[in-house]
Design a protein that fits this description.
five-stranded antiparallel sheet; Uridine Diphospho-n-acetylenolpyruvylglucosamine Reductase, domain 3; single chain; binds flavin-adenine dinucleotide; Uridine Diphospho-n-acetylenolpyruvylglucosamine Reductase, domain 2; alpha+beta; 3 domains; globular; Uridine Diphospho-n-acetylenolpyruvylglucosamine Reductase, domain 1; 17 strands; four-stranded mixed sheet
């Protein structure tokens, strides 16, 4: 257990003050002992994956930050399909590469989402028309409320996946590992598709900047082109907010839902920018934007 560890270097925003306590969890036992410590000291805990979907306050986190670093990966042949069982500290491109190495395809879109499997399960990661929950069979979890602190396997139904949500999020569970079912297929085609998707991201998103992906969730109302809800980026753009700057924080010129730390942004600069977006979008469209990024 380390003390007073600055969190900014663990987030893609490069923002975040100190954690009172910090532990790197490489296996189930590490998670369990960190949780025990947090209970014994009556402190909250926070699981940190890749930090690509978090805004941590400059004041830091007064509790125990558990950095998820379980990297186990295994493969089970199931005829036309294969099962990849991955611990939640693996990032999605590594899982995709492992799947390809075992002849599996179909994870190309999700493999372009930055961050760990744990963060992806928490928010049911999505890109274009793909959703992580479409590929999962089960997830092993720890429920911090469980007095026995045992590891339980949750089925897809129990995981209660929705857009930007899962039981991991709503019940504050810790995800340890998950089973991903993928079909066998043409691996060289899969690699080409993955490269194509990666390129399309660099073209449509502010690649190479300090950001945390989409700040807000898309809304269900049809307020723009298309009839499957409206992207928050479109609403921010239509409200004339692209490029707006407060302190060191800026709304990307390229994508209205990406907030950028231009180098010296405080957590408050980002929050003030977010509040401005919420107000202006509410004024113009009458809808309330909800954070996709976890605010700590
Ligand atoms: C450039 C860029 C592009 C992005 N594009 C997309 C996209 O297309 N689609 C998309 O869905 N997201 C996107 N994101 C957001 C982000 O990458 C995803 O939400 C990702 O899944 C977060 O994973 P993480 O490991 O970084 O999670 P973190 O940011 O570390 O954590 C996010 C949340 O998950 C929780 N968490 C993490 N691990 C666990 C665990 N093991 N058990 C329980 N809770 C856990 C954390 O406590 C926190 O509440 C993008 C981000 C960036 C920077």
């Amino acid at each position: 257990m380390q003390e007073n560890i600055t969190l900014s270097k663990y987030t893609s925003f490069r923002i975040g003050g100190p954690a009172s306590f910090f532990v790197e969890a490489k296996n189930d036992a590490d998670f369990l002992s960190a949780l025990k410590f947090s209970k014994e000291h009556n402190l909250p805990f926070l699981v940190l994956g890749g930090g690509t979907n978090m805004l941590i306050s400059d004041q830091g986190f007064k509790g125990v930050v558990i950095r998820s670093l379980g990297k186990g990966l295994s493969f089970e042949d199931q005829g036309q399909n294969g099962l990849v069982v991955s611990e939640t500290g693996n990032v999605l491109p590594i899982i995709n590469q492992f799947a390809n190495n075992n002849g599996l395809v179909g994870f190309e879109k999700l493999a372009t989402v930055p961050g760990t499997l744990g963060g992806a399960i928490y928010n049911n990661a999505h890109w274009k028309d793909d959703l992580l929950s479409k590929h999962l069979l089960w997830v092993d979890v720890i429920d911090p409320e469980d007095r026995e602190s045992s590891v339980k396997r949750l089925s897809l139904e129990e995981l209660d996946f929705k857009y930007d949500s899962s039981a991991i999020k709503t019940k504050n569970l810790i995800a340890l590992r998950a089973a991903i079912l993928l079909p066998k297929g043409d691996v060289s085609e899969s690699k080409k598709t993955y490269a194509k998707y990666l390129k399309s991201r660099t073209e449509s998103q502010p690649y190479g900047t300090l950001n945390s992906g989409c700040m807000f969730q898309n809304v269900t109302q049809n307020l723009g082109p298309g009839n499957h809800g409206t992207s928050a980026g479109y609403l921010i753009d239509q409200a004339g907010l692209k490029g707006l700057k407060i302190g060191g924080a800026q709304i990307s010129e390229k994508h209205g839902n990406f907030f950028i730390n231009t180098g010296n942004a405080s957590s408050n600069d980002i929050l003030k920018l977010a509040e401005t977006c919420k107000e202006k979008v509410k004024e113009k469209f009458g809808v309330e934007l909800e954070f996709e990024v976890k605010i700590v």
